[in-house]
Amino acid sequence: MNVLRCFFLAFFALGMTVFCQSAQAQRPLSQEPQLTRILFLYDASQSMYGQWQSGTKMDIAKKLLSELIDSLRKEDRIELALHVYGHLKKYPPQDCDDNRLEIPFSKNNHDKIIAKLATIKPSGTTPIARSLEECEHDFPDAKARNIIVLITDGIEECSGDPCAVSKALQLKGIMLKPFVIGIGSNSDYQKTFDCVGTYFNAANETSFKTILNVVISQALNNTTAQVNLLDTYGNPTETDVNMSFYDEFSGALKYNFIHTMNNRGLPDTLRLDPLSTYRVVVHTLPPVFTDSVAMTPGKHTIIPIDAPQGFLTLKYDGASEYKQLQAIVRLKNTMKTMHVQDFNSTEKYIIGKYDLEILCTPRLLLNDVEIAQSHTTTVQIPQPGLITLLSSSNVIGGVFQEEKNELKWVQNLEEAVLKQTLVLQPGNYKVVMRPKNSKSSDYTVQKSFKISSGTSTNLNLN
User: Fold this and answer.
1) Residue from 289, 322, 283, 320 nearest 304 by CA
2) Are 113 and 69 within one domain?
3) Per the CB 3.0–4.6 Å rule, which of 161, 211, 290, 434 could disulfide with 200?
4) What does the alpha-carbon distance between residue 425 and residue 399 come to, in Å, rounded to a whole number?
């Protein structure tokens, strides 16, 4: 009895494991919770002793940042860290290596960060570029949403290039575009920091507190969007196609969605990270795309993309000897293969004109095949015929199509095969050959034959 009971328990446990794995695999990617790491890069240079409304910049910034960090205790999707510059060495002399990760990333380290902030005293210079560079090593990996919040009252003082460093870290995929909060800074600083990240000018204590909350809200929350795939009439009727969202700056693939109409017949709502600017590629035939798609945090963004489509059906008459006939589809007047479509199939294409190369023997070229909105264009070719070539000895030669007194090569004969069966499109043909062992061109033989749809015939080459 105990053995039977154990068996059923084990079977139940296995079933639950498979069920959980299946449920996890089917969970939409856009709904998967993702860890967000926020690194506060904090300015403790000598200028932070400056007076700012009710106290020094340092005291006010410490107080408000500590309150913010305390409020994040219940957020289980984030990890925090604190990196400080300008607090280890006296100025003068200037020390551009004056920066250090004070509190590394971990869960529930809020008290440690608050306690460390309380002990920091301004003393040194402002090495923003070097500090940003060092932040690369602060993040354990690039598997989370890695975000830097730079809080500063000044600009670079060590001849570094914060813009170049920020760009390099984003291109490596180390972090997303940083946030930069200027404390009581000159409004002209925005020009300096726009290339580093998203800049906020905290002109007073109230705005600084508001900006801190806005930054955290943007860092933690996705916003919504919908992609309107427009038909030729400007209506969002196109759907059921894959869409890829790339970070426009780094090129990293951020999302993949199959475009879907919801139960109200409208393009479905997507949840996207508002910190990236996107290049959206819609994988139609050929693909269509739009660049520089920016999300407004907290607002629903509509992304219109022209994607009018029609259908192309390829078929042939009657029963066929073709095992797997295909056609190369190219944009009109181009030689680049856009798609290879099987016969007896239907595919959707962006409206316009296409050139087709049908891979039958001989190949058929059809130009200016037009695809119209929501219309099915059908290309149908005749059923082929069969010709069996018989020879009593090995031959050298080929099969040619006769068109307007001109021969066009179709294919070569197999030298060591005495019986060859060819599948050919209807038309007039000629075999030109000579016995392989003959040493004179005078032994060349020409024989004409005709192929009709659905027929089979033999031709003796001797």
Assistant:
1) 289
2) yes
3) 211
4) 13
Burial class (CB in 10 A: 0-12, 13-18, 19+), 103: buried
The answer to whether position 343 is within a domain reads yes
Domain membership of residue 270 as a residue range: 223-306
What's the one-letter identity of residue 395? Answer: V
Asked whether residue 3 is assigned to any structural domain, the reply reads no
Secondary structure class of 217 (helix, strand, coil): helix
CATH value at residue 440: 2.60.40.1120
> Which residues are within 8 A (CB) of 156 and not within 5 positions of it... i.e. 6 or more apart?
126, 127, 128, 129, 162, 192
Same domain, yes or no: 392 and 348: no
What interhelical angle do 205-220 and 57-71 show, nearest 10?
A: 30
Please write the tens of the pLDDT for every residue from 205-250.
999 999 999 999 999 888 999 999 999 999 999 999 999 999 998 8
| H or E stretch covering 213 | helix 205-220
Write the pLDDT tens digit of every residue in 410-429.
999 999 899 999 999 999 99
> Could you tell me how many residues make up the chain?
462
Judge contact between 397 and 431, C-beta under 8 A: yes
C-alpha 272, offset from chain centre: 14
Question: Do the domain assignments include residue 395?
Answer: yes
Rounded to 5°, the CA angle 68-72-78 comes to: 125
35: which 2 tokens? 């860890």
